[in-house]
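Following up on my earlier thread - several people asked me to post the actual chain instead of describing it. Fair enough. Here it is, all 304 residues.
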Amino acid sequence: MQLFLCVLQPRKQFYLSNTFFVMHSYLHLRLMSFVKVIVRMVFMSLLILSAMSSNLHSQTPLLEIKAGFDFFTTDRLGNIYLIDGSKISKYSAEGKELYVYDDYRYGNITQADMYDPFKIALFYKSFMQLRILNEQLALITETDLSTLPHLGIVSAIARTNENNYWIFDERNRQLKKMDASGFVLTMGPVLTKDSTQKILTPVSLCETENYLLLQDNKNHILAFDKFGNFYRSIYTPLQLAQVQGSADRVVYHNREGNLVFESIRDAELSNKPLEGLNDATQIRVEKNKLFIGTQNSLRVYAIE
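Reply from S.P.:
Thanks for posting it. Predicted structure:
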């Protein structure tokens, strides 16, 4: 019996020792795996931050157009349009000037809608004139909106994806949808100062996939649903020459030099740090390109 116990005791000690060694090795491996995961996450975060932050001063622009203009816009084909007073100039994606259209009889162009690059809509607010140009900036049709019934005082206009138009009637403080002939298809509710928290003095209007964006003054945007119902107000830190919306986001830049994408639905902000926006008077994002308008030039950069 004593011999049996003497034989079992070393085995028990060996078993406990072996178990401790296995557990120690297992915990060591788990700890090392955890450390590797943390290191990898930190490394990837640094890479992401590095990729997000871009110094535009150190980049060579894809192209630069030396010209003065009031505002600019782009189309889905990559063409660039500079609007200066009553003149609109079309440039290719490579920066070559292609066509020019200028008719000073109706004053300055206040909006240029490129939703359909083959039917470009120009709006002259002072005379309530809507003109449609082809891709070569030749006149197709012109409409005097002041002669059409039920439109009121049209101060902003936007093309819809149904080839109709949203207009803002400043007299009745109301969004209205009309067809190409000017027939009113639908009307949103009359807006009150209490609902918008602002007396409306529209500058521009644009349609996104899910919303309508009315630029009231240089740094105040009103978002509406597709039925013309007021949704919420958006305030930008800097003045905007023209509002740009994409899907359910508004695109603008701030004083810190960030490119900002603000969710219309929930106001969530996504910032992309960019150095080199200090002299920007207008920015626009189109197909991984950043367009920066200044007092006397337009620069184009590639962004991720």
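Confidence is low (pLDDT under 50) at residues 1-17, 19-24, 35-53. That should answer part of your original question.
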